[in-house]
Write a structure and sequence with these properties.
The protein is mainly beta.
Protein backbone atom coordinates (compact mmCIF):
# COMPACT_ATOMS: atom_id res chain seq x y z
CA UNK A 1 0.00 0.00 0.00
CA UNK A 2 1.43 3.34 -1.02
CA UNK A 3 1.77 6.20 1.47
CA UNK A 4 -0.55 8.36 -0.67
CA UNK A 5 -3.27 5.71 -0.43
CA UNK A 6 -2.86 5.61 3.34
CA UNK A 7 -3.07 9.41 3.56
CA UNK A 8 -6.25 9.44 1.43
CA UNK A 9 -7.78 6.72 3.61
CA UNK A 10 -6.98 8.70 6.77
CA UNK A 11 -8.55 11.85 5.30
CA UNK A 12 -11.68 9.88 4.38
CA UNK A 13 -11.95 8.40 7.88
CA UNK A 14 -11.35 11.83 9.45
CA UNK A 15 -14.35 13.22 7.51
CA UNK A 16 -16.69 10.63 9.04
CA UNK A 17 -18.21 10.37 12.51
CA UNK A 18 -16.51 7.03 13.12
CA UNK A 19 -14.47 7.03 16.33
CA UNK A 20 -12.41 3.90 15.64
CA UNK A 21 -11.48 1.89 12.54
CA UNK A 22 -9.34 -1.24 12.31
CA UNK A 23 -8.25 -2.80 9.00
CA UNK A 24 -5.98 -5.81 8.81
CA UNK A 25 -4.70 -8.31 6.27
CA UNK A 26 -1.63 -10.54 6.06
CA UNK A 27 0.58 -7.64 4.96
CA UNK A 28 -0.73 -4.58 6.80
CA UNK A 29 -2.42 -3.64 10.04
CA UNK A 30 -4.08 -0.22 10.34
CA UNK A 31 -5.79 1.09 13.46
CA UNK A 32 -7.25 4.60 13.53
CA UNK A 33 -8.74 6.21 16.62
CA UNK A 34 -10.20 9.72 16.81
CA UNK A 35 -10.30 11.36 20.22
CA UNK A 36 -10.94 15.04 20.94
CA UNK A 37 -10.94 15.84 17.20
CA UNK A 38 -7.35 14.65 16.74
CA UNK A 39 -6.64 11.73 14.50
CA UNK A 40 -4.28 9.14 15.92
CA UNK A 41 -3.12 6.22 13.90
CA UNK A 42 -1.01 3.17 14.32
CA UNK A 43 0.30 1.60 11.15
CA UNK A 44 2.38 -1.54 11.19
CA UNK A 45 3.81 -3.09 8.04
CA UNK A 46 4.22 -6.81 8.46
CA UNK A 47 6.38 -6.92 5.31
CA UNK A 48 8.15 -4.22 3.30
CA UNK A 49 5.94 -4.57 0.25
CA UNK A 50 2.58 -6.06 -0.46
CA UNK A 51 2.39 -9.05 -2.73
CA UNK A 52 0.81 -8.10 -6.06
CA UNK A 53 -1.99 -10.61 -5.56
CA UNK A 54 -2.90 -9.13 -2.17
CA UNK A 55 -2.77 -5.42 -2.92
CA UNK A 56 -5.55 -3.37 -1.41
CA UNK A 57 -7.25 -1.01 -3.79
CA UNK A 58 -8.74 2.09 -2.23
CA UNK A 59 -11.24 4.16 -4.11
CA UNK A 60 -11.05 7.87 -3.42
CA UNK A 61 -14.34 9.56 -2.69
CA UNK A 62 -15.48 12.38 -4.92
CA UNK A 63 -17.96 14.40 -2.84
CA UNK A 64 -19.46 16.06 -5.94
CA UNK A 65 -20.38 12.66 -7.40
CA UNK A 66 -21.99 11.62 -4.11
CA UNK A 67 -24.13 14.77 -4.06
CA UNK A 68 -25.18 14.22 -7.69
CA UNK A 69 -26.14 10.62 -6.91
CA UNK A 70 -28.15 11.60 -3.83
CA UNK A 71 -29.97 14.34 -5.73
CA UNK A 72 -30.81 11.99 -8.61
CA UNK A 73 -32.23 9.46 -6.14
CA UNK A 74 -34.41 12.05 -4.39
CA UNK A 75 -36.51 13.48 -7.22
CA UNK A 76 -39.75 13.30 -5.20
CA UNK A 77 -38.55 15.66 -2.43
CA UNK A 78 -38.44 12.80 0.05
CA UNK A 79 -36.41 13.06 3.23
CA UNK A 80 -33.86 10.25 3.44
CA UNK A 81 -33.01 8.97 6.93
CA UNK A 82 -29.42 7.69 6.84
CA UNK A 83 -27.50 5.50 9.27
CA UNK A 84 -25.33 7.65 11.56
CA UNK A 85 -23.09 4.65 12.24
CA UNK A 86 -22.26 1.12 11.14
CA UNK A 87 -24.46 -1.43 12.88
CA UNK A 88 -27.23 -4.01 12.78
CA UNK A 89 -30.70 -2.70 11.89
CA UNK A 90 -33.62 -3.64 14.15
CA UNK A 91 -37.12 -2.34 13.24
CA UNK A 92 -38.59 -3.29 16.65
CA UNK A 93 -37.52 -3.37 20.31
CA UNK A 94 -37.46 -7.20 20.26
CA UNK A 95 -38.16 -9.94 17.70
CA UNK A 96 -41.66 -10.66 19.06
CA UNK A 97 -42.83 -7.03 19.08
CA UNK A 98 -44.23 -4.96 16.24
CA UNK A 99 -42.04 -2.55 14.27
CA UNK A 100 -41.64 1.03 15.45
CA UNK A 101 -42.89 2.20 12.03
CA UNK A 102 -44.42 0.70 8.89
CA UNK A 103 -44.94 2.04 5.38
CA UNK A 104 -47.79 4.57 5.46
CA UNK A 105 -47.29 5.52 9.12
CA UNK A 106 -47.20 9.21 10.02
CA UNK A 107 -44.25 10.11 12.23
CA UNK A 108 -43.51 13.26 14.20
CA UNK A 109 -40.13 14.78 14.88
CA UNK A 110 -38.47 12.69 17.59
CA UNK A 111 -40.50 9.50 16.98
CA UNK A 112 -38.43 6.32 17.19
CA UNK A 113 -37.86 4.73 13.77
CA UNK A 114 -35.51 1.85 14.53
CA UNK A 115 -32.54 0.67 16.56
CA UNK A 116 -28.99 0.28 15.28
CA UNK A 117 -26.84 -2.05 17.36
CA UNK A 118 -23.13 -1.31 17.34
CA UNK A 119 -20.71 -3.08 19.67
CA UNK A 120 -23.57 -4.34 21.88
CA UNK A 121 -24.92 -0.78 22.30
CA UNK A 122 -28.47 -0.12 21.15
CA UNK A 123 -28.73 3.26 19.39
CA UNK A 124 -32.23 4.61 18.82
CA UNK A 125 -32.72 6.37 15.50
CA UNK A 126 -35.40 9.06 15.69
CA UNK A 127 -37.20 10.99 12.98
CA UNK A 128 -35.85 14.47 12.37
CA UNK A 129 -39.01 15.61 10.57
CA UNK A 130 -42.77 15.11 10.57
CA UNK A 131 -43.96 13.05 7.64
CA UNK A 132 -45.21 9.79 6.16
CA UNK A 133 -43.01 6.69 5.91
CA UNK A 134 -42.88 5.99 2.16
CA UNK A 135 -40.24 3.27 2.06
CA UNK A 136 -38.16 1.16 4.43
CA UNK A 137 -34.90 0.45 2.63
CA UNK A 138 -33.36 -2.28 4.83
CA UNK A 139 -34.45 -5.59 6.31
CA UNK A 140 -34.49 -6.66 9.95
CA UNK A 141 -31.06 -7.67 11.29
CA UNK A 142 -29.32 -6.37 8.15
CA UNK A 143 -25.85 -4.90 8.65
CA UNK A 144 -25.91 -1.27 7.53
CA UNK A 145 -23.00 0.98 6.63
CA UNK A 146 -22.37 4.53 7.77
CA UNK A 147 -24.56 6.98 5.83
CA UNK A 148 -26.60 4.16 4.22
CA UNK A 149 -30.22 5.20 3.52
CA UNK A 150 -32.67 3.52 5.92
CA UNK A 151 -36.04 5.22 5.35
CA UNK A 152 -37.73 7.57 2.90
CA UNK A 153 -40.15 10.03 4.50
CA UNK A 154 -42.53 12.37 2.66
CA UNK A 155 -42.58 15.63 4.65
CA UNK A 156 -46.00 16.93 5.74
Amino acid sequence: MEINEIKELLKTIDNTSLEYVKLENSELKLEVSKKNSSLKNNIKNKKDTLKNSEEIELESINHENISEYENSQNKDNLYIVKAPLVGTFYPSPSPNEKSFVNIGDIVKEGDKLCILEAMKLMNEINSEIEGEIVEILVESEELVEYNQPLFKIRPL
